[in-house]
Write a structure and sequence with these properties.
Elements lengths: L4 E5 L4 E4 L9 E3 L6 E3 L8 E4 L6 E4 L2 E4 L4 E3 L28
Antiparallel strand pairs: 1-2, 3-4, 5-6, 7-8
Length: about 100
């Protein structure tokens, strides 16, 4: 099963994947090789659900400024948002990859 990558930390050479698909102790196989890696840690990301395609797709964001009404996020991040993306205002109301009609 292929798992989407939510983020990559180049400094620590760490990938952030969906915790619903993998658990600590799970083994993953690197693409196009027989090299295995055992999941050893868990961490959280700050993000929002993008709704451009009609379903909830998690995207990481880097908040530059935030107040009670809005947040300004860093643009042009690899796994982040683009200008004019539709986002969910209440993340508790949706699940990852849930279709919205």
């Amino acid at each position: 099963m292929e798992t989407p990558i939510y983020s990559y930390d180049a400094e620590n050479e760490e990938y952030y994947l969906d915790s619903a698909a993998l658990e600590i102790g799970s083994n993953i196989l690197m693409p196009d090789s027989q090299e295995k890696y055992t999941i050893s840690r868990r961490a959280s990301l700050t993000g929002v659900y993008n709704m451009n395609k009609g379903y909830a797709d998690f995207r990481q964001i880097n908040i530059l400024y935030q107040n009670e009404e809005y947040a300004i996020v860093k643009s042009n991040t690899q796994y982040g948002l683009n200008v004019y993306d539709y986002i969910v205002l209440n993340a508790a109301a949706v699940d990852d990859e849930q279709f919205i009609y």
